[in-house]
Amino acid sequence: MSNLRRWAERIGLAAFTALVLLVPLVLGLVFYLTVFPEGITLNAGKGIWEGRIWLVKGTAPTGIGLQSTEPAAGTPAGAVCARTILTTFQWSPRPGIRREIGSCRCQPLADATALCLQP
User: Fold this and answer.
1) Domain containing residue 24
2) What are phi and psi of 87, to 5 degrees?
3) What is the pLDDT of residues 9-29, one digit of tens each?
4) Pair (117, 77) in one structural domain
5) Cut 0.70: pTM above it
């Protein structure tokens, strides 16, 4: 048996194994998001870095939503500003990916007013 064929078999076996192990993980995630509508919140532990994933539902599940909150660029001195970006992976009514800036909020640390600047 040639080396090329041996490596092709190994790569095929590795891909099959990865797929078999990934399917229960994806099904478990979908089940969890269906049972707990608030989703999963991840905090990076550094101030205002945060992420959230949940199942977007109308009358039936229509997609998966990802929300990320991170420090805003161009934050004025004396304020803490966070920009929230919402990404939706839709499969109904039309498959696609939609990304939008959800909000930008600032908390002044002094008597200054702060505005989030557009990226």
Assistant:
1) 1-35
2) -120, 130
3) 999 999 999 999 999 998 998
4) yes
5) no
Q: For the residues of 36-82, what is the DSSP string, one character each?
A: -TT-EEEE-SSTT-EEEEEEEESSSEEEEEEEEEEEPTTPPTTEEEE
Quickly tell me which residue has 């608030």 as its tokens.
Answer: 38
Partners of 25 in the β-ladder: none
Same domain, 26 and 42: no
- Report the candidate in 20, 40, 19 with the shortest Cα–Cα distance to residue 29: 40
Distance of CA 3 to the CA centre of its chain: 41
**pLDDT (tens digit per residue) in 85-108:** 888 888 887 888 888 877 777 766
Instruction: Report the candidate in 79, 64, 61 with the shortest Cα–Cα distance to residue 117.
Output: 79
DSSP annotation string for 5-17: HHHHHHHHHHHHH
